[in-house]
Amino acid sequence: MDNQINPPPDNNPSERPAQPSTPNPGLHASPGPPPPPEPIKYQSPEIKRSKKPIGYRAKGFWSLFQLIAGAMVLAFILNHVVFQSYEVFGQSMAPTLNEGDRLIISKLGKSWSGLMGQNYLPKRGEIVVFHNPREEETQLVKRIIGLPGDRIIVSGGRITVITPDAPRGFNFDDQFNLELDSTVGNVDLIVPPEEVFVTGDNRSPGGSLDSRNELGTVPLNQVVGDLVIRIFPLDQAHWF
Asked: Of 116, 114, 88, which is closest to residue 103 (Cα–Cα)?
């Protein structure tokens, strides 16, 4: 048998054959999955109120005050100089006006006469509002029958008016196309200066307090204004 001799180990490292090197996992890491994307942050818009100077705010308050004051002055002028609303109480002007009717009274003639330094003289036949001469806090609504200087005769159920233009007189209701009941009373007088003779359209016994009875004639300076329109009830709205 042949003896086999193994060569001795070679201790010289320079003489060792080259060996493939094992990769160092710490130095050569294989690429991993990509990092997740960063979430998108939405920033809500901020509304910033501009800080207005104090002077600007004061100017705004002053403008508002002027607006309110102007509206109040305008309402005062309209109510006391131009027009005023009234509600009818009682039946002294029936059937022309009834309780609950809403009226608009014009004060333009009264206001203009005041500016001219004169008493307001309404027209014969007009419906007017005036202060009760015997109780001034009360206002009445009646029809103008006679003007200063007119002679008024209430007799036989009718009213006769005698004027310089009609010396023989005329029937008041016929002149103004009024269809009213018979007029109660017995009067024959001449209307004093600066006064008017008034009656309600309800001339039945006890139907109206007016110049035929305890009220007497009315001073012109007590007249507030003349009726322009009835605005309520709506189905009876009517211009006068």
From this structure: 88
Q: What is the pLDDT of residue 24?
A: 46
3-state SS assignment for residue 154: strand
Task: Enter the pTM of the model.
Answer: 0.70
Domain coordinates in residue numbering, the chain: 67-239
Partner residues linked to 86 by β-bridges: 103
Tens digits of residue pLDDT in 162-171 = 999 999 999 9
Give 44-70 pLDDT, tens digit per residue.
Answer: 555 455 555 555 566 677 777 777 877
Contact 202, 92 (CB under 8 A): yes
Under 8 Å between Cβ of 198 and 128: yes
Question: Which tokens hold the place of 232?
Answer: 């309520």
CA distance 59 to 189: 65
Distance separating alpha carbons of residues 103 and 109, to the nearest angstrom = 17
Q: Please name every residue paired with 128 in a beta bridge, in sequence order, or none if there are none.
A: 142, 226
Between 65 and 234, residue with greater pLDDT: 234
Contact 229, 102 (CB under 8 A): no
Question: Looking at the domain 67-239, which fold is it?
Answer: Umud Fragment, subunit A (2.10.109)
